[in-house]
Amino acid sequence: MKITVFDIAYIGTDIDLSPITSLGECEVFEATSADEVIPRIADTEIAVLNKVKMTAEVLEKAPKLKLICVSATGFDSIDLDYCRAHGIGVANVPAYSTHSVAAVTVATVLDLLIHLREYSDFVADGSYTLSGAPNRLTPVFHDLYGKTWGIIGYGNIGKKVAEVARAFGCRVLYNKNTPDGTDECVDTDTLCRESDIITLHCPLNQGTRGIINEDRIALMKKSVILVNSARGAVCDEKAVADAVRNGNIAAFGCDVYSSEPFPISHPFNDIKSLPNVCLTPHIAWASYEARVRVVNEMAENIKAFMQGTKRNRVE
What we know:
This protein is α/β, with parallel strands linked by helices and 315 residues long. It folds into two domains: 2-96 and 288-306, Rossmann fold; 98-279, Rossmann fold, CATH 3.40.50.720. 34% of the residues lie in helices and 15% in strands. The protein is built from twelve helices and twelve strands. The strands form two sheets. It has a seven-stranded parallel beta sheet with strand order 8-7-6-9-10-11-12, with helices on both faces. The chain has a five-stranded parallel beta sheet with strand order 2-1-3-4-5. Helix 10 (214-219) links the parallel strand 9 and strand 10. Helix 5 (98-114) crosses helix 8 (156-167). It is globular.
């Protein structure tokens, strides 16, 4: 069976791909541009991809395609309606990055809360040595203990972040259609109004697109720390940038963007160097262990398909 791996560079060339390449005739590409997708998918039976978009225009040029394996939990880059109508299976990898995303989310919150980079830079540039003082007490930072941590998106990642937040002594609020867990389930407006820290872990869909907008930012405390580890478009990015510049958000962290990498015209370009902003290049999912898991899980998805069963199917 012909397997094509379209963009191994986005999984990492340091990861052993043999669990997948051993399953059939396999062609591996580091990356695939939009112009290269159709020629490469023409005789493919199983497509393994991360960022490549599988639109109807692409899929109609793939007469042999039987299965798409996405090396991610999200699958919004794939036209599921077309796949359903034409019998193309789609398999994702749920929960592989839970520990990685939770760790990066918490690290971002702590960095912004404690001003860790500013203190580290104070030592690194020699200012500490020259100061003659044994310590430095500015910028002022606060305990995480006793704060209210609001979580939008209470799946595997959200629950792991909640677990860490509780361990630090936080009150945890979460937002979900159906209450599920030991924490307090509240509506989005209440969460925005009462939280000292807000982290986003929800999927991108019509209900969550722009869930953090100008109106909801207006509900937040001006001391709030906002971190987006979900999808870029769950935030109105211009509204967030404006709020940071105007002092309506105390600190902002983000690992995901509506356009990746974000262009020069993106509103975050104006705030990216501010000390109360921590932007990372979509790395939260990407610990070495998570990337090994995603390859192994995709291999199991392919094996299941070859055996006539369904595993992690979303179409």
